[in-house]
Fold each of these.
Amino acid sequence: MREIRIPTPRGELHALRCRPGDSEATGSPIVLMHDSLGCVALWRDFPIRLAEATGREVIAYDRLGYGRSAPYPGPQPSDFIEQESASFDAVRKQLVLDRFVMLGHSVGGCMAVEIAAHHADGCEALVTVAAQAFTEPRTLDGIRKAQRDFAEPRRMARLATYHGDKAEWVLRSWVETWHSEAFAHWTLDEALRRVACPTLAIHGEHDEFGSLAQPRRIAALTPGPSEPTILPDCGHVPHRECPERLIDAICPFLDAPASA
């Protein structure tokens, strides 16, 4: 496991590279994209477990404004999901990622879709976990409930443990962006239709931020399985709630000839 810094025009990114034990990694590396309140540290031990199970290198980075990366220079723009492709340009060049797999959780899954569409020359497979394909009341209701929970000082203190003095910006960006006029009719459809690689949409049965219509839309508009993989008795964070089942769903997909 190795920590690195990646320079970008807007500030440095913090990243983590995990290899499968002492063995040589095989296959293209997997790049993880975190959720709206997430960061590298909040993946916990999932990156190393995924590396061990797949035999691939796993790379996770803190988006600008999150975790140990530099602060975001100003308010988060309404097209922040699409714009993440620009940050990934720097990650790809710095780490010399010729071929790679994208795996994103929640809004990180949306970003993984945009990156897969924009970097079709290198992205050989895409996995979305609890991703949103469009704005729905369930998503907004879940965010409002979480915002009320963060009125509890201990909850904000915990968020600051991972994001430092950027914690208020992280929370505000999440709440305000999804409730903005720009997101009232937002969909991921255009990017989904441009994805050329095999795609696996995974979703928890009881995801509090998105109905099963979300992964079904992703599966319907991308190459790969026509139906999503639904994890029973699981909510919005499979990599913490049921990491073994999540990895068991990912491995056969990546081992399939079309994803090799």
Amino acid sequence: MALSPSHERPLDVPGLLFIGGAFVEGDGAASVEHVNPSTGRPQAAVPVGSASDIQRAVKAAKVAQRVWMDMGPHARARSFRRLGELLEANREQLAFLGARESGIPVALPMMDIALGWVDHYMGWIDKIEGSYGESWPAPGFNYTRREPYGVVGVIIPWNGPLMATCMMALPAIAAGNGVVLKPPALAPFVALRIAELAHEAGFPAGLFNVVPGEAEAGEALVAHPDVGKVTFTGGEGVARRVMATAAACLKPVALELGGKSANLVFEDADLEAAAVQAVYGALGLSGQGCVNPTRLLVHRTRYDEMVARAAAVAASMKVGDPFDAATVAGPVICQSACDRILGIIAQARREARLVAGGERLQGELADGFFIQPTVFADVQPGSALEQNEVFGPVLSITPFADDAQALAIANGTRYGLGAYLHTNDLDRAHAFAERLDAGYVNINGFASMAPGAPFGGYRQSGFGRVGGWAGMEEYLQLKNVFVARRDGKR
């Protein structure tokens, strides 16, 4: 299958930073080649932001944040509405950029999900409330205010830049903050374009800045004294560095980290529906999702049938050119990720039973980073494949004997992001929802990151929430105001 001519089109996004409402050169000379994951060939030079670039961006955000608040809530909401319109008008371009930078299939409804986040947080802008109460022992009145931090640093990953930008940066702006967003050099183009559209929508110049970069820019952003809070989405190792840097200046952080989410299929489940969700949920987006249900746990009476169904569904998945409307899984992000995932598969072959996939795609796709949807059965609890996040198209299947064992295996990792279960027993569904150590539980379906619902993890999957009012509160500080009564009455 030949790749689409869309891989030869120019990207039409400047290889620059977006600071103060304009594309600007970086202070440093550093840049990296961006490689198209579908072709394995360089396609653009990406500037790598420096500490001084972060300094400029924070300064711009600090000034713009005051302008944003002075506009009043209705004008801010109008700007959000206009941004949604501009995102819709540029739907095709943003899908094109996502396919070119991250290999995201254009057929996936990324824009629809992103627009849901814009609409939801537009609705909260004029609904930020406090509370009132009488004071004791001093006579008077107490009321509370929820106020923005000022400037928020947002560090996003490469696996879904359109969704990540709208999920993480826009709630902070809706709450009244300025934002400096740092995407990785692996995926800078979508975020840069969204920032440009936000400026066109009426966001004050400097309210939303984008500085692609790596460790230097990230450290500078977290440590900057004018950044009131930092939200980070990514892996555990970098999260520890973020926390250590933030701890030195006593700065709050929110972390959305990895997962090894269990998907429990009980003996009374609808196996046909469960198999499709299990495979597409785990291996869609080439398995590069933090909340993907990558551990399939099946009651032993339905185990063999479920293994056969999962293998068949995986074998039928269309993997290939992200510009093909039939593609559901494109390439993984880069050569090093491809090599790492194939190494994990090679190790797992010695410990479990391979029932689907397991190879890199060849032929006309051989130069890209394409890996077959891969399914392993008979995966032992506690094994490396069962415990560690792959972040690639690999699903593990493990049998369980009863509810107690299912719960023990499901809760038996260091993660706690998502959990899924399939059953027609309502009592069991509610009991497991209560006892699963995960912040995001789905029963007989998948909520698809609903913007009105809080999303976040337990344990090593992080803390803090995005979505709903909880996601708005992440970016607001609570202030108490006391007003004394001059007449001395209580």
